[in-house]
Specification:
heterodimer; A: mainly alpha; 2 helices; disordered C terminus; B: mainly alpha; Rna Polymerase Sigma Factor, Chain: A; Arc Repressor Mutant, subunit A; 9 helices
């Protein structure tokens, strides 16, 4: 038998590669099940990624502004306002810090799931 | 169910739209992968990895090319990566023998003697030459399109195809 193959001619239309019966019919369901198990929620893209950090920055800025205002007012309000200044200042700073930590934690989580 | 790029980008509709895309494009992607890796089990693995990568990187698709082109590029990269893991770069003789034995006994290969010999010849080509040959010969892809897809100059692709043809012709002469 002569084994010749003319590569200058178009490729034969016959496709010698076959698949198991029902392969294409079931593939999508199997694939999507794997995707659902393997991948967590898709990462937030673009500017939305920075939204939590922006919120934290706003809270921090407002906290500092409040501390400054309280400090200015504190000079004429005596001991009561001094307590208020210390208490509210610390409280807001801690809240802002906590919020920023949470925001950063979210971003780190995003990076872990980002490809 | 049809899908749109907007649906794929929206976290609320992404999963369903992606499923619709998998249903629609799997036969086409499978065919392209199978021609490169030749065996069904390998093609199935590479195809799954391709879809997984596409899902994980959906946000990085900027829309500066067709979605199908982007998927095709992932599929080719995954196929190439698979081939490189499968064998050392210099083991062409081993690869040829392995491909011939496996394809002859492969229940999912339904080619005649000539087709089998052609696949054996293709299996002897270096990985990138194998991809270029398949794209040009079987899919009749234009060099311009191939150049964008593989990020390689048209001149280099033409030279690669020319070399592949010469090697395959030589393989047939020696087998005769």
């Amino acid at each position: 038998m002569t084994r010749t193959f003319n590569l200058s001619q178009p490729a034969p239309k016959h496709d010698p590669f076959k698949v198991p019966e029902g392969y294409f019919e079931t593939f999508a369901d199997r694939m999507m099940a794997r995707i659902a198990l393997a991948a967590p929620a898709a990462p937030v893209s673009g500017w939305l990624r920075w939204l939590p950090l922006s919120g934290a920055a706003c809270v921090a800025a407002l906290s500092l502004l409040f501390v400054e205002v309280a400090a200015v007012q504190g000079g004429s309000l005596g001991e009561t306002s001094a307590w208020t200044e210390e208490s509210s200042g610390t409280s807001y700073e801690e809240q802002a810090y906590d919020y920023m930590m949470m925001a950063n934690a979210n971003i780190l989580t995003d990076y872990e799931t980002d490809y | 169910m049809p899908y749109t790029l907007e649906q794929l980008r929206n976290p609320e509709t992404r999963y369903e739209a992606f499923g619709a895309m998998v249903r629609q494009l799997t036969p086409q992607l499978y065919g392209q992968i199978r021609r490169i890796v030749q065996y069904h089990d390998d093609a199935d693995d590479v195809l799954q990895n391709t879809w997984l990568k596409a899902w994980q990187n959906l946000d990085s698709f900027r829309g500066d090319c067709l979605l199908t082109t982007w998927l095709y590029r992932i599929a080719l990269n995954e196929s190439l990566s698979f081939l490189q893991k499968q064998h050392p770069a210099d083991s062409l003789d081993n690869e040829e023998g392995e491909a011939g034995r496996t394809l002859e006994s492969d229940p999912y290969f339904d080619g005649d003697e000539i087709e089998l010999l052609l696949q054996k010849a293709i299996a002897t080509l270096p990985d990138k030459q194998r991809i270029v040959f398949n794209l040009r010969y079987f899919e009749e892809m234009k060099y311009e399109h191939m150049s964008r897809l593989l990020d390689t100059s048209e001149g280099a692709l033409k030279a690669s195809y020319h070399l592949a043809v010469k090697k395959i012709e030589q393989f047939f002469r020696e087998a005769d």
